[in-house]
């Protein structure tokens, strides 16, 4: 199991595929194992490096609270560990927030940038505060989460759209209350960093071609947030797809378009 010592934390990472170098940054609560299906679809075209964020998955626990600056530094430190001077960067949801921070603090390192279903924070709009879901009763929490993933995901919709129902079932473990204490702590610290994210006023510092991609029915990172991102990043391209927060798995045209851009 490859690990890199980053800021005193053993960070688990994997490098797969062949082609131009692509650093993949995962969503809230996500791990390499959970993102395997998406990562596999990148490896035909790219040499992909993915890692479990501090306190997540098989990486070591975070010592205490941190922000996007520390997470961006982790990503760049991993690139340094791999000997990657320059790389393409794909950030999904929470990973898109980290990717923004990387792109504005180390613009010379990023060749191309894809920001999927994410938000800039501040005046550019914040993603839904997922930490508040824990305050809801279990049944209400699950129903609310489904509608956040895609505004169409009512019980009636899911009853007849089996693929969408499978997506919701696959994500339901994120809401489980009976997780080990270390996992809960890691997720809590990550959600705190997420809630404080604000890169909007610095996005004019992004210096590479950028794609902002969003699902039309996303309740976590609404379309308006992606529109604000695209306005703030010089010459960014905005693409909207049919789906919600998981649009790469809902719209068959989405991932090919992202791959085409990153190539």
TrEMBL record:
* AB hydrolase-1 domain: residues covered: 20-251
Q: Which GO terms describe its biological process?
A: glycerolipid catabolic process; proteolysis
Q: Which domain of life is it from?
A: Bacteria
Q: What's in the keyword line of the UniProt record?
A: Hydrolase
The region annotated as signal peptide is none
Please give the Gene Ontology molecular function terms for this protein. aminopeptidase activity; triacylglycerol lipase activity
Q: Which InterPro entries match?
A: AB_hydrolase, AB_hydrolase_1, AB_hydrolase_fold, Peptidase_S33
Family recorded in the similarity comment: Belongs to the peptidase S33 family.
- Indicate what this protein is called per its UniProt record: 3-oxoadipate enol-lactonase
- Give the species this sequence originates from: Actinacidiphila yanglinensis
């Amino acid at each position: 199991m490859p690990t890199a010592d980053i800021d005193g934390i053993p960070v688990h990472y994997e490098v797969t595929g062949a082609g131009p170098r692509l650093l993949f940054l995962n969503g809230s609560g996500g791990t390499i194992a959970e993102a395997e299906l998406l990562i596999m679809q990148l490896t035909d075209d790219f040499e992909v490096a993915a890692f479990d964020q501090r306190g997540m998955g098989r990486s070591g626990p975070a010592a205490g609270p941190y922000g996007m600056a520390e997470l961006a530094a982790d990503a760049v430190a991993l690139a340094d560990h791999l000997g990657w001077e320059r790389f393409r960067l794909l950030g999904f949801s929470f990973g898109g927030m980290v990717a923004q921070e990387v792109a504005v603090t180390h613009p010379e390192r990023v060749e191309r940038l894809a920001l999927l279903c994410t938000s800039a924070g501040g005046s550019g709009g914040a993603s839904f505060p997922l930490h508040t879901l824990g305050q809801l009763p279990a049944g209400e929490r699950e129903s609310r989460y489904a509608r956040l993933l895609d505004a169409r995901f009512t019980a009636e919709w899911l009853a007849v759209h089996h693929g969408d129902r499978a997506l919701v079932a696959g994500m339901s473990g994120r809401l489980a209350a009976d997780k080990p204490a270390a996992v809960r702590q890691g997720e809590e610290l990550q959600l705190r960093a997420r809630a404080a994210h604000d890169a909007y006023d610095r996005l004019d510092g992004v210096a590479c071609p950028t794609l902002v991609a969003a699902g039309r029915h996303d309740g976590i990172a609404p379309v308006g947030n992606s529109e604000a991102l695209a306005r703030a990043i010089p010459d960014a391209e905005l693409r909207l797809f049919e789906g919600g927060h998981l649009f790469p798995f809902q719209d068959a045209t989405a991932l090919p378009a992202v791959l085409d851009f990153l190539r």
